[in-house]
Amino acid sequence: MNAFTHKIARSAVVAGLVVGAMGATGSASATTSAPSGDVSIQEACPSSGQIGYGRVCTTLSSGRLFHDKTQGGGPVNVRTWYEKSSGGTISAKLGFNYAGTTTWGSQFSQSAGTTKSASWNRNWASDCYSTNGLMSVSGQGTFQTPSGTC
Q1: Which end of the chain is more exposed for a tag (fewer CB within 10 A), N or C?
Q2: What is the pTM for the complete model shown?
Q3: From CA 18, how far away is CA 119, in angstroms rounded?
Q4: What is the annotated signal peptide range for this record (predicted)?
Q5: For residue 111, what are the CA distances in angstroms to 20, 92, 122, 125?
């Protein structure tokens, strides 16, 4: 197994644990057990935002917003997470947009040095559908990743 395949497999296991903890309802909740991104903590996301198969990120002033999709023979797991590296505590929610429809997770508070995540299962035929990760921060607006495609 090469390093890239290992990262995808590890991400799928972590995603399964997060989704399993949320139950079969498909609802999302913030958690601190989110996967790490494929870029080191010191570097910004690449200008294209593309960091792996279906995985994208964008650098914000206080951290990085990530989004990806994985499919392991069943439903597609859609994830958005935010690695907050600096600044004060925020109140936010994570989500994604697919074909003009936005889906949001629960509201949460987040301080510097933490990661929050939201995850959803979708019965799509493929994980290649174009989606954007979203984060709505109270009093600051909505931020999004580039489009995550295959």
Answers
A1: N
A2: 0.73
A3: 7
A4: 1-30
A5: 25, 11, 30, 37
